[in-house]
Design brief:
Pfam families: GST_N_2
Largest sheet: 4 strands, mixed
Radius of gyration: 17 Å
Low-confidence stretches: none
Mean pLDDT: 97
Strand content: 5-15%
Domain GST N-terminal: 1-86
Keywords: Transferase
Bound molecules: glutathione
GO molecular function, one term: glutathione transferase activity
Enzyme class: transferase
Shape: globular
CATH class of the largest domain: Mainly Alpha
């Protein structure tokens, strides 16, 4: 029923979000991958027109075949088609906040995203975050705290059960861990929960199995061992 277009698993943070929105919520999709910066990706996306970016989701079997692209639209569409899957918290205040956090992640944090591109092959020591990156991190700390205050819980995730907002922040967690960025102890625990999550581990294993490395994502900094579990 679902076919999901993604790009290089080690580097495409939006692809990771799209894939988590499917797999982490117990749904299945046939995955088709295109290589970033090659015609392979645009050729793949011709089958997902009018989408021009990944993730893109083709939906068949419940009426006319259709395509939904952009991670936020994919989240809302899957939540609508699978209300039992739990993409958003059941409680309305938490649900509104979770949507706001996902939307802000989707639209913002440009400094963090630009300075610290997701690279699931590397972890560094000595990265010096700019004031703009530190401002993004401060905002992320606030958002994660607001989430926990709205939905007090003992689990690792923002609103109790893993929800789409967590999926949107998974690549942020990877950036915090791999660029050794400063966060509170509570949020360091949240970051590690992402790195140890079964679906994240599966995604990263597939990323490492991809023989093609994109050196443009590498920084000239000393490397650390991967900061989370390996399997
Ligand atoms: N806002 C989009 C961003 C998607 C995006 O920028 N994807 C990148 C890969 S991470 C892409 O497809 N780049 C290929 C291109 O722009 O040609 C979303 O949420 O899905």
């Amino acid at each position: 029923m679902y076919t999901l277009a993604i790009a290089d698993r080690a580097y495409s943070s939006w692809s990771l979000r799209g894939w988590l929105l499917v797999v982490r919520f117990g749904l299945t999709a046939t995955v088709e991958s295109g290589r970033l910066y090659t015609s392979g990706l645009s050729d793949l996306l011709e089958h997902y027109a009018p989408a021009t970016t990944v993730p893109a989701l083709r939906i068949a079997g419940d009426g006319p075949e259709r395509v939904v692209w952009d991670s936020l639209a994919i989240a809302e569409t899957l939540a609508e088609l699978h209300p039992e899957a739990g993409h958003w918290p059941a409680e309305p205040v938490a649900r509104g906040l979770a949507r706001s956090l996902a939307a802000e992640m989707h639209a913002g944090f440009q400094s963090l995203r630009t300075a610290c591109p997701m690279n699931l092959r590397r972890a560094y020591v000595g990265f010096d975050p700019s004031p703009e990156v530190l401002r993004d991190l401060k905002r992320i700390e606030l958002l994660w705290r607001v989430a926990r205050e709205a939905a007090p819980n003992d689990g690792p995730w923002l609103f109790g059960d893993y929800c789409a907002a967590d999926a949107f922040f998974a690549p942020v967690a990877a950036r915090i861990a791999t660029y050794d960025l400063p966060v509170s102890a509570e949020n360091a625990t949240y970051v590690l929960a992402h790195l140890g999550d079964r679906c994240f581990l599966d995604w990263r294993a597939a990323a490492l199995a991809d023989p093609v490395e994109l050196e443009r994502y590498d920084l000239a900094l000393p490397e650390l061992p991967w900061p989370g579990p390996l399997v």
